[in-house]
Amino acid sequence: MDATTLKAWRKAERARLIAARVALAPSVLDSWRRRMDVTLERSFPGLARCRLAFCWPIKGEYDARHLARTLRSRGALTALPVVVAPRTALIFREWHPGVDMAKGVMDIPYPVGSAQIIPQAVLLPMNGWDPQGYRLGYGGGFFDRTLASLEKRPLTIGVTYEFAKMETIQPQSWDIPMDYVVTERGVYRRDPDGLAFLGEPDPGEGTLASPVCYADEHYFGGQS
Questions:
Q1: Beta strands in 48-200, from DSSP E residues, in sequence order
Q2: What pLDDT is attached to residue 210?
């Protein structure tokens, strides 16, 4: 697939998946969000003691603000991405309720004047995703460029929904796969052969059917 065809194909797939997401009932999205909150909290205990970046939700994306509030209460520092200029890496600024905000690209709010931080982990929305852990974003390349620019790459957790799984996003040399993907179903970890499903939350307990994430050891200096 040549570059022009690929760009058009990704644009069409992005539009299709966003339309399907926006069409979902708010009650369904909230139910999935709550399920994913529990999965993330229990599977990645190190998030409660790290510098965590997430994205302000748009167009029915997973809303990480609820989880961020819980994690801040346990000691996490939370941040949002800031677009500095086209075709450049993002920066991240600390955010919590009360921080001054402005409207940026796609009318997405971003923090103004708060401290710039380097995240240890990122919760990254995915319009589409594939079995290798690659992400279909919004086409600007900001996150791939940013992850490639950081001296120590943060733990990257794609947050998305099962229905958005694609056969492939047709990844290119600059596309960076996620370390983990979390959906309403559970947790996937990227292994050499692609994403491996690690477990599904128990509906009653919110725990996973199989042991999950040892990411703490590498990214956060030991498990909690």
A1: 51-53, 77-82, 91-94, 101-103, 109-111, 116-117, 121-125, 128-129, 135-136, 155-159, 180-182, 187-191, 194-199
A2: 43
